[in-house]
């Protein structure tokens, strides 16, 4: 990920949330993905996940389980009526919110994301999986 042209050196294992610092406030941002640009005003912000993260929060808000070998990024604008889940190789988010935050893999790693800041999310290094996690994953989510 690149925040305001500076690389964030912490890898994302599961998910990224871009939202207002106050969870009761609206989040405004511009989303660029798959050759489309859309401005959003949402109640809960923007959410993106890796294949590994697709079984966590994204799945619980209605997202799709992704094969662990997938290099796509699944994304969703939370709090937008009839919004669909999207998939992309690269996503750019521009903050249109004065007091926003970016949260990586939960609440502990966070960055300011204020008016006109930009975040570029690109597919990263694939996971090296040891063992048969796919079978366990399929069993836990009734995919067998």
Give a written overview of the molecule.
- This protein is mostly beta strands.
- It has a single domain, classed as Probable inorganic polyphosphate/atp-NAD kinase, domain 2 (Tumour Suppressor Smad4, Sandwich).
- Helix content is 8%, strand content 41%.
- The protein contains two helices and twelve strands, in the order E-E-E-E-E-E-H-E-E-E-E-E-E-H.
- It has helices at 57-60, 133-140, and strands at 2-3, 6-7, 15-20, 27-33, 36-42, 45-49, 73-78, 86-88, 90-95, 100-104, 109-113, 118-122.
- The strands form two sheets. Strands 2-1-12-9-4-5 form a six-stranded antiparallel sheet, with no helix packed on it.
- The model has no long low-confidence stretch (mean pLDDT 90).
Summarize the structure.
This protein is mainly β and 144 residues long. The chain contains two helices and twelve strands, in the order ββββββαββββββα.
Q: Main attributes?
A:
single chain, 2 helices, 6-stranded antiparallel beta sheet, 12 strands, mainly beta, 144 residues
- Supply the number of structural domains: 1
Low-confidence stretches: none
Number of strands: 12
Query: N-to-C SSE series?
Result: EEEEEEHEEEEEEH
Distance between the termini: 34 Å
Q: Label the structural class.
A: mainly beta
Main sheet overview: 6 strands, antiparallel
Q: Quick check: average pLDDT?
A: 90
CATH architecture: Sandwich
Query: Can you give the helix content as a percent range?
Result: under 10%
Note the beta-strand portion. 35-45%
User: C-alpha Rg, in Å?
Assistant: 15 Å
- State the strand order across the main sheet: 2-1-12-9-4-5
Q: What would CATH call the homologous superfamily?
A: Probable inorganic polyphosphate/atp-NAD kinase, domain 2
């Amino acid at each position: 990920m690149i925040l305001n042209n500076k690389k964030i050196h912490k890898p994302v294992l599961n998910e990224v949330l871009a939202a207002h610092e106050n969870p009761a406030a609206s989040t405004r941002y511009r989303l660029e993905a798959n050759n489309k640009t859309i401005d959003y005003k949402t109640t809960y912000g923007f959410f993106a996940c890796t294949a590994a993260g697709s079984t966590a929060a994204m799945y619980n808000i209605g997202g799709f389980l992704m094969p662990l070998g997938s290099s796509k990024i699944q994304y969703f604008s939370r709090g937008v009526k009839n919004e669909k889940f999207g998939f992309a190789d690269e996503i750019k988010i521009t903050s249109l919110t004065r007091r926003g935050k970016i949260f990586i893999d939960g609440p502990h790693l966070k960055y300011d994301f204020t008016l006109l800041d930009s975040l570029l999310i690109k597919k990263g290094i694939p996971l090296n999986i040891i063992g048969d996690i796919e079978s366990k994953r399929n069993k836990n989510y009734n995919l067998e």
